[in-house]
Amino acid sequence: MKQKNIFSMETQNYIIKNIRKFFQNAVNDEDFSTFCQDNFYEFYNNFTAGQTLNQRISDLIDFCMKRNKMQDLVHFMKEANGVKFTDFLPYLEAQSDKNELNVTGNDKLVIHETPQNEAKKNNVITTNGSGNIIIQDLSKGNDINISISK
């Protein structure tokens, strides 16, 4: 059985291979240092002499995984180099087995449009009157139900 190269969080699966490829192709050692200093100073502050760029990339991914900062990492990647960012999509694995997300209490739901989903005309967002938001992807016939519970 082949092991998948993803990191799972409660609602998202990140494709580590693509994140690594982005950094290997989008930045040099100096750019990577600046990226880390600007966005992950705690990580940057622990750089050691003699580390290769690939070691630092792997260490940054580990750092973000352990601290649940993968969403931040992907966001900052797009900010740093939007052109290269689109070259290595997707960064998130599609989740066909999960189609419901419960948002409770003070949780915040943020929906980001990504370049891989530019065909907005194929998506329909509706509510069913009982607090559920339904996003229909007409191009693939998939529905995503979002329930807001109190």
Question: What attributes characterize this protein structure?
Answer:
single chain, 150 residues, two-stranded antiparallel ribbon
Could you describe the 3D structure shown?
By secondary structure, this protein is of the alpha+beta class. The protein folds into 2 domains: 6-87; 100-148, no CATH class. The chain has helices at 16-26, 29-39, 41-44, 53-66, 70-80, 82-87; strands at 6-8, 13-15, 100-103, 123-127, 132-137, 142-148. The strands form 2 sheets. Strands 3-6-5-4 form a 4-stranded mixed beta sheet, with no helix packed on it. Strands 1-2 form a two-stranded antiparallel sheet. Strand 1 and strand 2 (13-15) form a beta hairpin. Helix 1 crosses helix 4 (53-66). The radius of gyration is 18 Å and the shape is globular. Mean pLDDT is 76; it is low at 1-10 and 116-121.
The ordered string of helix (H) and strand (E) elements is: EEHHHHHHEEEE
Spans with pLDDT under 50 lasting ≥5 residues?
A: 1-10, 116-121
Structural class: alpha+beta
Distance between the termini: 41 Å
Condensed summary:
With 150 residues, the protein is α+β, with helices and mostly antiparallel strands. It folds into two domains: 6-87; 100-148, no CATH class. 38% of the residues lie in helices and 19% in strands.
Layout of helices and strands:
Layout: E1 6-8, E2 13-15, H1 16-26, H2 29-39, H3 41-44, H4 53-66, H5 70-80, H6 82-87, E3 100-103, E4 123-127, E5 132-137, E6 142-148
Parallel strand pairs: 3-6
Antiparallel strand pairs: 1-2, 4-5, 5-6
Helix pairs in contact: 1-4
